[in-house]
Amino acid sequence: MDTQLATALIRRAVLGETESAPPPLGAITLHAHQSDAVRRLLAAVRRYGGALLADDPGMGKTFVALAVAREFARPVVFAPAAVRDPWARSRQLAQVPATFVSLERMSRRSPPQCDADLVIIDEAQHVGAQGTARRQAIAAACAGRAVLLLSATPVRNRLTELEELLALFLGSAARLDAEMLSRCIVRRQLSSARLPTIVTAPPLVVPRTPTLEREIRALPAAVPLQEGGTAGPLVAMGLLHARGSSVAALGAALRRRLQRGEALAAALAQGEWPNAAELRRWLVGDDTVQLRFALDPPRADTHQWHETLRAHCEAVRALIERARAVEGRDTAGRAALLRGVLRAHPDVPIIAFAQHAATVRALYRELRGEPHVVLLTADGAHSADGRRARADVIAALAPGGAARRPSHDRVHLVLTTDVLSEGVNLQGAGVVVHFDLPWTPARVRQRTGRVARMGSEQTTVFEYVVAQSREVARTMGMQRRHKEKARAGARATAASDARERLRELVGCWPSNSAALADGASHLVIGSVQGMATGFLAVVESAGERVLVGGTRFARTVTLTTDPARLVRIVAGVSVPIVPARVSVSPRQIADVLRALTRLLQHRGALAALDASGPRTALRRRLMRRAMDVLPRTPVAAQGAAAAAIAQLRLALRQAPAAGVEPVLERVLQEPVAHDLQWLARTSAALAALATPRRETTRGGPPTHTSGHRPIALLLISPRRTAE
Fold first, then answer.
1. Which of 214, 215, 220, 219 is nearest to 305 (CA)?
2. SS3 per-residue string spanning 321-367
3. What count of Cα atoms within 13 Å lies in the side-chain half-sphere of residue 179?
4. 24, 154, 276, 111 alpha-carbon torsion, rounded to 10°
5. Which of 410, 210, 406, 231 is nearest to 323 (CA)?
6. Are residues 541 and 417 part of one domain?
7. C-alpha distances in angstroms, 605 versus 181, 552, 600, 609, 675?
8. Domain check: are 582 and 653 in the same one?
9. For the chain, N or C: smaller number of CB within 10 Å?
């Protein structure tokens, strides 16, 4: 028994190889949690062709990504245009050259060509759904390249969003088991770094005003939908969401509706039919992106459509007048809440967010007499002195921004939309106010994450939420929606969260560097005390060392590589490590080793088959077409044809990126003049996608030895047995 070496091998398998701190990144010295992320991301990129960094906002994902990019020759960054300047400053500090391409450019008909060996996608949640032009262009850019995704909120609405993101480098193999998923995703929470504490204050309650809920729900039907019924509920939902922000936002939404409705009526009068995009904007506005429905543009009954539009527009006009009558009182009540926050935090910059620009504009009109108040929207920034540069406002909220300015030029309150919720560093602020609830809780996290991040001047960040009226809250159910979406996000990252907990637990074990220095050329077995009977083992499988846990009942052995189940086993091991005082029978060890052998045989078979093999319809069609070559090939050339088909199958299995699908479509559409030449061209096209994925880093491919064998076995015996 060598318990010391067995525990040391398990610790190394979980935490990774111990390495010295990486060299400085230009003018930046990485924190310990950032250096750890760089090592783990590079390992995932080498193993799977890509990785997702999903750290909480404020933990320095940009510099981690640049440290990864340093290992590549031609990195490119895809990100929203709004974060172009922060990325430029970070690249300059890190001294890492990287091309920046906005995600908006990738939505155009002719997106820019990508000549890179690493694709970094910041705010990856904005890549878009399957089938969109942006998604297709980005998938093509990712094909054959290493991919690093950055997103604190990879799941905003549905669990499938995570699979769609991972498919950019895993393709049809994106549905991984928990163990592999925890290796592809690196996610640490705020407690992993020195960040300010977030304190949520009691909800702010707006003085009661008419909710207008009944009037909104009573609006006449808008247009019919393809699946039957009307769009009334959709219209009401969009308007109630605006009302939840403010009466001013509701009035602005109604005026846009009236303007678009009258434009539709004018188009119908001239015989022009609106398209689906125009109807969607009229029905629910531009921001309700998660609502999906089929519209039925008018084709025959013009008179009925005219009557529908007329009745709806008349009701909207009446509702606009009703909203105008109560807008002033509602705005004054919300402004009074902000004045209270200003008094409570006289020396700390405050950022007040609202999804609707009309809300912050109305508040600014009410508060512009207060000193040091700034309005910032997509249209620019304004203060009592006139227009201000957006960059100037952001600089005032950066660390040390207040100290660098004269007292008359400082910023105390910024009223803004979600243009400041992503890609900016506002650590000089210390208070965040949410005047409305976005459709997804991910947006709330992004807002607060602009302030509660590394480098903050505050030890505590206060968060205020303006409560919705009871009627709107009941109808919209935003709290329920947020809980459901938060649960989906938690399920998406459950495996990586368990991996972090596992690392935390094993990190408390002694490092035993002296024991590791001696190494081990044979299976190392140890025995420790714990809460229950079980075992932990390190196995070498397909070039990597994997932790396996298990329990034994009689002669039945159950194995697991699921990080969540491993956490329960590791949590039961006594710390500090106490060797077990009972002898372990050879039969017990043999039972465990037989189970481990079966597991290794299974994993070896999966590696031989390659789980990322042809699963999609396009891949199956390609292999059927390749197999059809053999019967029509002369006997003398069938050996060469069989070898070419085997080469094609191998190339296909090694090209799992989502961007391979357009290549398959092109290959399947091209005419075949010579079968063997077609097989060779197709294999070369697929190999061009697959080869750079595994060996693009300057450090070369991973140096693990191949094979499938157990390395270490740690048997756990209950404490009461030892006593």
1. 220
2. HHHHHHHHHHHHHHHHHHHHHHHHCCCCCEEEECCCHHHHHHHHHHH
3. 15
4. 30
5. 210
6. no
7. 20, 25, 8, 6, 31
8. no
9. C
Three-class SS state of 88: helix
Cα distance between residue 556 and residue 340, in whole Å: 66
116 and 140 both lie in a single domain: yes
DSSP secondary-structure letter at 202?
A: P
pLDDT-flagged residues of the chain (< 70): 17-22, 171-176, 190-194, 222-233, 271-302, 402-404, 513-521, 542, 553-555, 582, 602-618, 653-662, 689-707, 719-723
Q: How far apart (Å, rounded) are the C-alpha atoms in residues 584 and 701?
A: 40
Fill in the amino acid letter for 681. R
Asked if 226 and 147 sit in the same domain, the reply is no
Helices 563-571 and 494-507: crossing angle in degrees, nearest 10, is 30
Q: How many domains does the chain divide into?
A: 5
Within 10 angstroms of residue 91's Cβ, the number of other Cβ atoms is: 20
Q: Are residues 359 and 243 in the same domain?
A: no
Q: Is 455 exposed, middle or buried (0-12, 13-18, 19+ CB in 10 A)?
A: middle
Per-residue CA distances from 340 to 204, 352, 361, 444, 716 (Å): 10, 13, 19, 22, 58
Give the tokens for residue 559: 């194995």
Q: How many CA atoms lie within 13 A of 135 on its CB side?
A: 15
CA–CA separation, 580 and 572 (whole Å): 13
Strand-strand pairing, 556-560 and 118-122: unpaired
Tokens of 714: 């740690």
What secondary structure letter does DSSP report for 558? E
Burial of 720 (0-12, 13-18, 19+ CB in 10 A): exposed
* 98 domain-assigned: yes
Q: How far is CA 382 from the centre of its chain?
A: 33
Q: If we measure between CA atoms, which residue out of 360, 337, 335 comes closest to residue 249?
A: 360
Q: What is the DSSP string of 521-551?
A: SS-EEEEEEESSSEEEEEEEETTEEEEEEEE
Q: Structural domain of residue 396, as residue ranges? A: 197-206+335-473
The answer to whether the beta carbons of residues 689 and 663 sit under 8 Å apart is yes
**Exposed/middle/buried for residue 698 (C-beta within 10 Å: 0-12, 13-18, 19+):** exposed
| Residues 506-520 pLDDT 10s | 988 887 766 665 555
Helix or strand (DSSP H, E) at 383: strand 380-383
Quick one: pLDDT at residue 226?
Answer: 46
Element (H, E) at 204: none
Tokens standing for residue 717: 């015996």
* Same domain? 445 vs 508: no
